[in-house]
Amino acid sequence: MSAIAPDTVQRRAGRLAAADTAVAVHGVSKSFRLPHHRYSTLKERALHPFAARSHDELRALDSVDLEVKQGEFFGIVGRNGSGKSTLLKCLAGIYSLDEGQIHLHGRVSPFIELGVGFNPDLTARDNVLINAIMLGLTRREARARFDEIIAFAELEEFVDLKLKNYSSGMAVRLGFSVAVSVQADVLLVDEVLAVGDASFQRKCFDEFDRMKADGRTILFVTHDMGSVERFCDRGLVLERGRIADLGAPEDITRTYSELNFGDPAERADSEGAPARIAAAWCETTASERIVSSLQGEDVIACFEVEFAEALENPAFGLIMRNEVRHTIFMPTTELAGGLTGRFEAGSRATVRMRFSNRLAPSRYTLTPCIGPPGGGYGTHDSLARGDDLAALLVEGPVTGGVVDLPVEVEVVRE
After folding, report:
1. What is the dihedral of CA 264, 268, 271, 277, to 10 degrees?
2. Is 241 left (phi over 0), alpha (psi -120 to 50) or beta?
3. Model pLDDT for residues 30-42, shown as the tens digit of each residue
């Protein structure tokens, strides 16, 4: 896959700047009441009739203003509890607003939460038809697209199985397939795609490319900064219900990193941290940033470092884990056998580690680390560490191992 030429990016930016507004959010606020006491029986309610009247208030969204252009791929990121999913549910009409207004232009297709809109006691066939009609298709259109929906979800053998007997991954495939089949003007996608297997996530990413080329408007909630830089035209960072930053993908990923791991100067003052991992990503040998890779391809894992203090020969390392949190491998400059040199306070460096992708199909997270000379980069004595700062999907044949190494096989008949 070749990198997008700069003039193509510029033309797209020009088209988006001239496009009409697809999503407008003005002064939106949403709060939830958290009662101090919850009743579980009628007896408790009779004995404590006034206990549930006291409550705390959680401000999930606080005066959010946002405009998304038609055809824009817009990322929404933030830490857990920052209000990302609440914002998407307000856009989808699942939650009512306490304050503000939302204007959506065109048909909206939400894929927000695993199982929402599905009846577990109905078969996949019934759920597909009902949900497609609820999303705006006619009965004839829903029936006409049924085979295509099931084929995309790869569930042909399970169409007459009740949804309550589906695994979470099967339900995700079905829900996403219905959402994209509607051909809506605005697609709302939450981070539930992380539940699907590596092969299906790759298929979803291919679908994102197609919809982006078709000029569909997509709002995408994720924790994966690689996906933000790979797909998004712009994005925002939410923090405690407020917009912490709004702008280009590279600015968004930097702000998100600072919220999670702190500003380098602040870390040096409060914790004595001499360096900071500013960003991490994977790229091809042609310097194209990627979120997925096929087995056998060369992958370069990269991370950017900012130094708050001068360091002499720090060790740079990387921890790669699979979905069940097993550490698969830990490359380091110490193992490479070379000294890294001196880095002055205020300087920056980009570390690149190239490897041949022999990983089994799965989703992998990358944790960059910096340690003192001699090691310790992946433990509590590390100088800096960015846990799960990037992710990589690997697609290929499933063999059952954690890695698929090149092997020669010989069978000798006796």
Report:
1. 30
2. left
3. 998 776 666 667 7
